[in-house]
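quick one if you have a minute, typing this from the bus. below you get a single protein, a line of residues and a line of whole numbers that encode the local backbone shape. could you go over both lines and see whether the tokens make sense for that sequence. anything you notice is useful, everything is just below.
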Amino acid sequence: MLTKRIIPCLDIKNGRTVKGVNFVSLRDAGDPVELAEIYSKEGADELVFLDISATEERRKTLINLVLHVAEKVNIPFTVGGGIASIEDVDVLLKAGADKVSVNSSAIKNPNLINQLSAKFGSQCIVIAIDAKQIDGIWKVHLVGGKVPTELNLFDWAKEVEQRGAGEILFTSMDHDGTKNGFSNGALAKLSDDLHIPIIASGGAGKTQHFIDAFIDGKADAALAASVFHFKEIKIKDLKQELKNNNIPVRI
């Protein structure tokens, strides 16, 4: 059985790591380069670095920050924010990223997924999907969760897999920052519907939430931010508890 992955997420705005609740009310969480180095040493399996305002501000991801983070870590490193072309991905991979995360641009131009997968290989193309329930239906949102679409979460997830995505990073906007647990029902359906790995995001507040995401949600990886940034959960302790619950992890 493949080991389950623990992934700290660094949401970046104005060069600093930030964290909010339901995608708003952001507060400072520290220097992203320092945090990346700490997580790499503490046993994180991967890192995700999201330049959360790049799309809204219509600019490219902060390349210099990517270079500095890549120098400090020895684990796979995914970068997202403002990616809209083959050229954008090429620059990021050359700067040290192992994977890229694409969200809004993939929705606006779904064929971009095919192009990126063909050029760079599906293994480094992560499609991020931010969704929330509206009248009981999971609707996909773009531009950092600010703009709703008519896309259904599960239909869009199937399409991005067919177009060549290697992984899906699913964030439940309803759960984001609440620390009430991941959206395990939606995660389990995604896992049942698809053949590519699903990364759970949104809602981590305690160790049990990670256990539930892997068992009930059938997730392949779990991503969290504030519980790691503010030292509420230590990665080493989390992994030991997962192992105690017969969840395969790399220690």
The chain has one domain: 5-244. The two ends are 15 Å apart (CA to CA).
